[in-house]
Amino acid sequence: MLLGVNIDHIATLRNARGGKEPDVYKAALFASKCGVHNLTMHLREDRRHIKEDDVRKVCSIPELKVTLEMAATDEMREFALSVMPYKCCIVPERKNELTTEKGFDVAGENIPMMADNVMPEYQAQYIAEFIKPLFKAGIKVGLFLDPDKKQIEAAKTTGVKSLELNTTAYSNAYGTNMEEEEFLKLKIAAEHAQDLGFEVNAGHGLTYNNVHRMHEIKGLHELNVGHTIIARAIFTGLEPAIIEMKRLIL
Length: 250
Ligand code: PXP
Known about the structure:
There is one protein chain. By secondary structure, this protein is α/β, with parallel strands linked by helices. It has ten helices and eight strands. Strands 1-2-3-4-5-6-7-8 form an eight-stranded parallel barrel, surrounded by eight helices. The termini are close together. It has helices spanning 8-17, 24-33, 52-59, 74-83, 123-136, 149-156, 168-173, 179-195, 227-236, 238-249, and strands at residues 2-6, 38-42, 66-70, 87-90, 140-145, 162-166, 199-203, 222-225. The structure holds pyridoxine-5'-phosphate. Pyridoxine-5'-phosphate (PXP) binds next to strand 8 and helix 9. Pyridoxine-5'-phosphate binds at residues 6, 8, 42, 69, 89, 91, 99-100, 144, 164, 203-206, 224-228.
């Protein structure tokens, strides 16, 4: 499995003092030297961590694949087209969430999670239209989804080829009597998505302790890991923290 590293929380720490340190660009350079497959940054509507300038600078690093996590809004799409990341991963954003809480409701059954004027039943259709200019520009597009058959099948109708399955429920259940149930949901969803021809990635909430079970899911392409790596980096430095995660998922 490949490792994608999310560096949002370097920016969280920087923003705590409103200054320049720790430097997000420097962190991206370090991470790229450690041979990560890609580097992820989530530019949220409220800019609570990553800012536009961070994305611009990091996207200019030669050879580095940058994934821009973003809501499905016109503003974000326009920005993405201006910086040309390797990939855009479409995620739902809720105003008061501490972190991304759920996968995108592409099957459109729950509360709409994007532009207010988009009715739930049109979400797959909306996404299909939304991503066309990104594809046209040569940007890869992924969707962040809960491990749910309905969502995966709805995603198939959008034209997206790459999914990231949400591992939050598995991560929260790890070590409890819910672990097996949540793990199986992930495994079944990953297999189903692969049968439908998707590139299947996974992430959110993974840690050094719980990541090992991802090896039990055949064919996972990439894991996206952020908070646990940045948290460890405070004690060990970024490079050893990344290298250890790479060792665990190889
Ligand atoms: N994947 C997605 C879609 C996310 O939103 C995040 C967090 O921004 C991650 C992966 C990484 O999650 P964590 O920081 O818990 O490793």
